[in-house]
Amino acid sequence: EIVMTQSPATLSVSPGERATLSCRASQSVSSSLAWYQQKPGQTPRLLIYGASTRATGVPDRFSGRGSGTDFTLTISSLQSEDFAVYYCGQYNNWPPLTFGGGTKVEIK
Amino acid sequence: EEQLVESGGGLVQPGRSLRLSCAASGFTFRDYVMSWVRQAPGKGLEWVSSISGSSLSTYYADSVKGRFTISRDNSKNMLYLQVNSLRAEDTAVYYCARTGRNPWEGWLDLWGQGTLVSVSS
Asked: Which residue of chain B is at minimal alpha-carbon distance from A104?
């Protein structure tokens, strides 16, 4: 099973600042990597798939990069609605689908 | 509007069973792999099970294999999860999620609101 590790666990950022979240896979997942956003009390929402392709309706301030084992999600200028928990998930050679433990982006 | 609506959760005693349901609408249900993902209180996401569009292929997490059964009825646009021999560690919100049209498209692009399963004596 491929283990996904996200860092940091919590990221404190001021509105308007840039946030960079990291996700590492225990073995290569090629570009089979997705990012999800979950706001408090809400259902997860797909942001990015294929490591860098934004899902429908996702603002272009969200961008994903990486391949193999190391990936990043960057939010270029944090808006109030972006404070949430972000999960990465791999789908290379699945099942199983596996997720990272999440990064909470909170207001500094 | 594309939508997934789960039902069937509740409070159950250890060892008992439940059947979770997910009603899909607004898209061609039979074209998609469908999945269940759960989230324990205050915890992260855990994939539980997936089923191909034709029902020919089913997949399970090791933690639920032999106890949970996924199924679908394409004539009714319904996805199901039969959960048996429930344990305290199965307590979670269970989400129905649309997976890709093709087996390699393992991202989850549409999620239901979830249904809570609480296992306690």
From this structure: B44
Chain B nearest-CA distance from A62, in A, is: 16
| Cβ separation A32–B60 shorter than 8 A | no
Write out the DSSP string of A3-38.
-EEEE-SEEEE-TTS-EEEEEEESS--TT-EEEEEE
Digitized pLDDT (tens) for each residue of chain B, 121 residues in all: 999 999 999 999 999 999 999 999 999 999 999 999 999 999 999 999 999 999 999 999 999 999 999 999 999 999 999 999 999 999 999 999 999 888 788 999 999 999 999 999 9
Pick from B44, B50, B114: CB nearest A102: B44
Tokens found for residue A32? 């089979």
Best residue in B45, B63, B105 to probe A by mutation, most A CBs within 10 Å?
B45
